[in-house]
Specification:
Layout lengths: L1 E3 L2 H13 L4 E6 L5 H11 L4 E6 L19 H10 L4 E3 L3 H4 L18 H4 L3 H16 L3 E5 L3 H13 L5 E5 L19 H6 L2 H14 L5 H15 L3 E9 L14 E9 L2 E9 L2
Parallel strand pairs: 1-4, 2-3, 2-5, 3-4, 5-6
Antiparallel strand pairs: 7-8, 8-9
Helix pairs in contact: 6-7, 9-10
The structure holds pantoate.
Amino acid sequence: MKIFTDPIELQKHCLSWRNQGLTIGLVPTMGFLHDGHLSLIDMARASCDKLVVTLFVNPTQFGENEDLGNYPSDFDGDCAKAKAHGADLIFAPAPDAMYAPDHATWVTVPSLGTHLCGASRPVHFRGVCTVVTKLFQLVQPTTAVFGQKDWQQLAILRRMVRDLNIPVEIIGHPIVREADGLALSSRNAYLTESERAAAPAIRQGLLRLAEKIREGERDGHKATEFLTNEYASTLPMGTVDYIELVTPDSIEPVTTITSPVLAAVAIHLGKARLIDNILIEV
Ligand code: PAF
């Protein structure tokens, strides 16, 4: 398995693969790989000749008071895991290799970014879209795999690829969970023992909301109020960032539930901001 830190070296290598007619799968990550990432890697591995995994804590997608400085990392562990899961190449650049001091070009998909994480993290998706576009330009992947835990990210990247005619197939992988339902996340590492014990309530609340909607609740406001009350009693140590019902593809608020709806939440538990979601068919 090769390890590159230089974007130009990566690009040359990947272009030579493409010139040989090989397909390339890409799994972009911020490192500190867990089983959720590894299932994305396995999925990509199954559908391509060459597999590139990127480890890059992208500074431009973090707001000023977010956890960029504390984001967990384990470079050696990540390389060992990626290798064991069949990666051919790791790309782990330094921030200044990806962003020139006078970097001035941004990719944004504003209409899908006004709700959910886009509302509470104003620069986040601009950073994500820009770095993912750069990775696509460097790797020229035929497929790229992203997790559905970041549903809004996936919807935005799909729209970006469609609108800019980027020749890559975007694949979404279902959320990977702990046995008690907590969605895997690198940020789970911030949880204290008591926060970790409480965290499965996030998923349980979403499941109860889905049940309520399947039983006939059609009022979007009442549905979110129901989940707010659930969390107030089952997760008192959490602070809700958002609880929203949105359309799954265009991420627009749903006031009357008449078609499949995405319920998405972000909850602060101690130092961790955890997100989760559920797609509810009606
Ligand atoms: O989902 C992530 O880990 C990041 O947003 C991504 C896609 C690797 C871009 O930095």
